Amino acid sequence: MPVKKIKEEEEMVVTEVKYHAPALEKGLDILEYISMEGKPVSQTDIATGIEKSPNEIYRMLICLEHRGYLLRDDVSGKYRPSMKLYNLSHRHSPIDEIRKASRYPMDDLAEKIKQSCHIGVLYQDKLIVISQARSPEPIALSIEEGSLFPLMLTASGKILLAFMEENSRFELLRRNDLFSSYSLRKQQKFLASLEEIREEGHYLTPSDLATGVMDITVPVRNGSEAIASLTISILMTQMKDTIPAENIVADAKLAAQKISANLGFKVSGS
Question: Do residues 99 and 230 touch, judged by C-beta distance below 8 A?
Fold first, then answer.
């Protein structure tokens, strides 16, 4: 990747967002914090969790309660999320569509390569596993649905970043703590690796999160962009006894194309 191009990307990554909506951001911070806690929390807890003063969030809590997004216990005064966000999100769920579209291609892939496979998508700047097909063999890795992983430390996450629209990728990396902690040289190297992944069309690498595991990942695409990642995680001790990696890559790409077709997407540059 040309140094000039990398430099331009870096400048875009560190550019601050031009427009802010403080009240909206504060309300979203509150909802995200309460949802992540998984238990009723007090006004003080919330304020501490999102680094605001109790007075700053008082009116916002009243508004969210009034609109039905939060429920407040009459005795303890603690807040918990209502079902309103859940109901809104499930009126039309793209994730459900991806699950349905991927079911049979993933089952066929798992049966053919004798390994489990899973689908991951972007969720709150992380990688979440939304579906998996289990291996027919008695011993194989299983990645449970609902599991969350750091985007930059997974093969699935790097595939999503590599096949992401540039401005979206720049903004995501700009607010990513891990990427921000990197030196400029390391940031450039990471961006260059994403370009290599995009050119290759798949990613085969030892796992950064689990010792002794090899990840083989391909994008599920809408045009040139990835809307999900399809990954096979294999124990390295099984590599010599399994289908050659290049064959697994080919089979995975075919399965990903079938999923894209089931979703009504066209894949460019295949």
Answer: no
- Residue 267 backbone phi and psi in degrees, to 5: -110, 120
Mean pLDDT, 10 residues at a time, the chain of 270 residues: 47 51 91 88 95 94 94 93 76 81 95 94 90 85 85 94 92 92 95 96 90 92 93 83 87 96 76
User: Backbone phi, then psi, for 116, in 5-degree steps?
Assistant: -70, 155
Residue with tokens 């950064």: 208
From CA 45, how far away is CA 36, in angstroms rounded?
Answer: 13
What's the distance, CA 10 to chain centroid? Answer: 22
The CATH number of domain 94-262, selected from 3.60.9.10, 3.30.450.40, 3.60.15.10, 3.40.50.300:
3.30.450.40
Contacts 24+ apart (CB under 8 A), 35-39: 35/81, 35/85, 39/80
Separation of alpha carbons 230 and 42, rounded Å: 40
In the block, tokens 């990903």 appear at 256
Angle, alpha carbons 217-221-225 (nearest 5°): 100
Structural contact between residues 63 and 27, judged by C-beta atoms closer than 8 angstroms: yes
Count other C-beta atoms under 10 Å from residue 121's C-beta: 20
* Cα(108)–Cα(119) distance, integer angstroms: 14
CATH of domain 3-88: 1.10.10.10
Query: Mapping DSSP to helix (H, G, I), strand (E, B) and coil, where does residue 165 land?
Result: coil
What is the number of other CB atoms lying within 10 angstroms of the CB of residue 13?
Answer: 19
